[in-house]
């Protein structure tokens, strides 16, 4: 019976060191800006949204971290969920466009917001950028 005790301890130590080697996310932040903020001219208008997702934490390159993100819109629509993988902390640039305006929608004021999260660390929650507001006024 005593012969197996060191083996069991070694197995527990191996699992503990494996868990400590895993990557962990400590923070995710997001920014987003609309361009142009105020559009006046021929429609449809194209508004470009550029943002950043910054991820901090302790990373082991053998344990990459997957980040998911999507864009939320003032009209209730949600963009497709996209993913990218990190092997070190850093900032990633993301971009999206929204085309709108025309005879049936001559003016519009709205916003988009970037939502990002680490997919394997679901207890972390979501990071939301401030809303990037914009206005469209179509020329007659």
Any overview of this molecule?
The chain has one helix at 5-21; strands at 24-35, 38-41, 45-58, 65-73, 82-86, 90-100, 107-118, 127-128, 132-138. By secondary structure, the chain is mainly beta. Strands 2, 4, 5, 7, 8 and 9 form a six-stranded mixed β-sheet that branches. The protein has a three-stranded antiparallel β-sheet with strand order 1-3-6, with no helix packed on it. The longest helix has 17 residues, at 5-21. The model is unreliable at 1-20 (pLDDT under 50).
Give a concise summary.
This protein has 140 residues and is mainly beta. The protein has one helix at 5-21; strands at 24-35, 38-41, 45-58, 65-73, 82-86, 90-100, 107-118, 127-128, 132-138.
How does the overall form come out from the CA principal axes?
elongated
The residue ranges in which pLDDT falls below 50 over 5 or more consecutive positions are 1-20
Largest beta sheet, briefly?
Answer: 6 strands, mixed
Radius of gyration, rounded?
A: 22 Å
Structural class: mainly beta
Question: What order do the helices and strands follow?
Answer: HEEEEEEEEE
Number of strands: 9
> Helix content range of the residues, please?
10-25%
Q: Distance N terminus to C terminus? A: 90 Å
Q: Tell me the β content.
A: over 45%
- Tally of helical runs: 1
Let me know the average pLDDT.
Answer: 86
């Amino acid at each position: 019976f005593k012969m197996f005790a060191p083996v069991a301890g070694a197995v527990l130590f191996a699992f503990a060191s494996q868990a400590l080697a895993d990557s962990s996310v400590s923070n995710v932040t997001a920014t987003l800006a609309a361009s142009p903020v105020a559009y006046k001219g021929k429609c449809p208008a194209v508004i470009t949204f550029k943002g950043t997702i910054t991820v901090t934490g302790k990373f082991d390159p053998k344990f990459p971290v997957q980040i998911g993100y999507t864009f939320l819109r003032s009209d209730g629509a949600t963009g497709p969920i996209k993913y990218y993988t990190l092997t070190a902390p850093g900032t990633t640039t993301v971009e999206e466009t929204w085309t709108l305006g025309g005879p049936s929608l001559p003016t519009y004021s709205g916003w988009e917001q970037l939502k990002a999260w680490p997919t394997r660390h679901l207890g972390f929650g979501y990071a939301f950028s401030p809303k990037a507001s914009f206005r469209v006024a179509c020329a007659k």
